[in-house]
Amino acid sequence: MEPKLEKKFGLITAIAMVVGIVIGSGVFFKAEKILTATGGDLKKGIFAWVIGGIIMISCAYTFSVMATRYQYVNGVVDYAEATMGKKYAFYVGWFMAIIYYPTITSVLAWVSARYTCVILGFSITGGECMTIACLYLVASFTLNALSPVLAGKFQVSTTVIKLVPLFLMAVVGTFMGVRSGMTAYNFTHYVSQGTSGGLFTAIVAASFAYEGWIIATCINAELKDAKKNLPLALIAGTFITMSVYILYYIGLAGTIKNEVMMAGGETGAKLAFQTIFSSAGGTLLFVFVIISCLGTLNGLMLGCTRGIYSIAARGLGPNPKVFSQVDSTTNMPVNSAILGLFLCSIWLLYFYGANLTTSWFGFFSFDSSELPIVTIYAIYIPIFIMFMKKEKELTFFNRFLMPCLSLLGCIFMIIAAWFAHGMAVVAFLIVYFIVMMLGALILRLKKTTL
């Protein structure tokens, strides 16, 4: 039987959910990289935020239309099944369980630890930072696995907290920058020529900050008048997110010179907050940034703990009887959760060896915070194409115009990733195909035993 979920969310609540899911640590983590990639060119940096935001908004709208067509369908795996079939859905779920969720979650654990180390005065690439990252991973796993209700409350609390430093920096930083002339200075002075393919690098970096919006489509079965309100919520929520990010970026420009921010790295953001709110106030707001990162980590760990379960629940993947089991007390797929934590640990070790120290992997070193996100955009392409082919009753705007814009956005992200990462894309694709071939082998073995 299909689940019968209560229609309990209104439009305002839905918009708040979208904003809460999408806004996270990425804006703190990637603002510095975007500034560096564009050589301190604020106009080019803002353009990168806008392009990334437009791609997010167009894709979000197309998926919102899917949500209204496929009632009670939740998540990108089920959208893949509705448009492309069960086999493609398995590969999407396999990718998300083995690569997508654990890579992004492991990076978020390090980001949370990195900002903790900035306050404590530790190295962001040393043993202290990685130890804290491991502790954050285990703590997030424990919270989700043993007390889902408490994990939900933590998520709501951090959603509110994460907006505090963003809005304060956006408003106060911009006001001070206009009065002092710092904003005008940073808008008219460039630090360098930026990196090779700087704009593409900046846009791919922005995609990390924007990621997470697809999760918001899961509320469609619980949304009042979903056919009207879900598209409005996704468009309004993603537009608000883009606006907040750009205003925060401008607010930073009103505090300290771009060259200081770029040279300071992680401490640059802390210095920006302390410039406005004094040393104590700036440190307190930086604590809010850490809590924001932990909130995002908590939300991603939620996906990690259910990664293999989403496949096993369909009777697919490795040992589905084991990974589809749900604990009667906590109502959690514990076996799936344990595997999710293990995969996060493996990818955290890889991230350290490939990006934070002298490379352990040589040619096979790549940025696991960005390339998996670009891959998910590539995965959307056949879904959008089949959606246009199947949904003949929709208007031209919903059937062709917005899906085509979404397709162009996805293709652009793939091209941008190549310019931003070069041969590292090839290294990632090799790892990707190995993982997917393993999934194909498991799928074939499963069919032979049926």
From TrEMBL:
<feature type="transmembrane region" description="Helical">
    <location>
        <begin position="88"/>
        <end position="112"/>
    </location>
</feature>
<dbReference type="GO" id="GO:0015179">
    <property type="term" value="F:L-amino acid transmembrane transporter activity"/>
</dbReference>
<feature type="transmembrane region" description="Helical">
    <location>
        <begin position="400"/>
        <end position="419"/>
    </location>
</feature>
<feature type="transmembrane region" description="Helical">
    <location>
        <begin position="334"/>
        <end position="351"/>
    </location>
</feature>
<feature type="transmembrane region" description="Helical">
    <location>
        <begin position="9"/>
        <end position="31"/>
    </location>
</feature>
<dbReference type="Pfam" id="PF13520">
    <property type="entry name" value="AA_permease_2"/>
</dbReference>
<feature type="transmembrane region" description="Helical">
    <location>
        <begin position="371"/>
        <end position="388"/>
    </location>
</feature>
<feature type="transmembrane region" description="Helical">
    <location>
        <begin position="271"/>
        <end position="297"/>
    </location>
</feature>
<feature type="transmembrane region" description="Helical">
    <location>
        <begin position="46"/>
        <end position="67"/>
    </location>
</feature>
<keyword id="KW-0812">Transmembrane</keyword>
<feature type="transmembrane region" description="Helical">
    <location>
        <begin position="118"/>
        <end position="139"/>
    </location>
</feature>
<dbReference type="InterPro" id="IPR002293">
    <property type="entry name" value="AA/rel_permease1"/>
</dbReference>
<keyword id="KW-0472">Membrane</keyword>
<feature type="transmembrane region" description="Helical">
    <location>
        <begin position="425"/>
        <end position="445"/>
    </location>
</feature>
<dbReference type="InterPro" id="IPR050598">
    <property type="entry name" value="AminoAcid_Transporter"/>
</dbReference>
<dbReference type="GO" id="GO:0016020">
    <property type="term" value="C:membrane"/>
</dbReference>
<keyword id="KW-1133">Transmembrane helix</keyword>
<feature type="transmembrane region" description="Helical">
    <location>
        <begin position="198"/>
        <end position="219"/>
    </location>
</feature>
<protein>
    <submittedName>
        <fullName>Amino acid permease</fullName>
    </submittedName>
</protein>
<feature type="transmembrane region" description="Helical">
    <location>
        <begin position="160"/>
        <end position="178"/>
    </location>
</feature>
<feature type="transmembrane region" description="Helical">
    <location>
        <begin position="231"/>
        <end position="251"/>
    </location>
</feature>
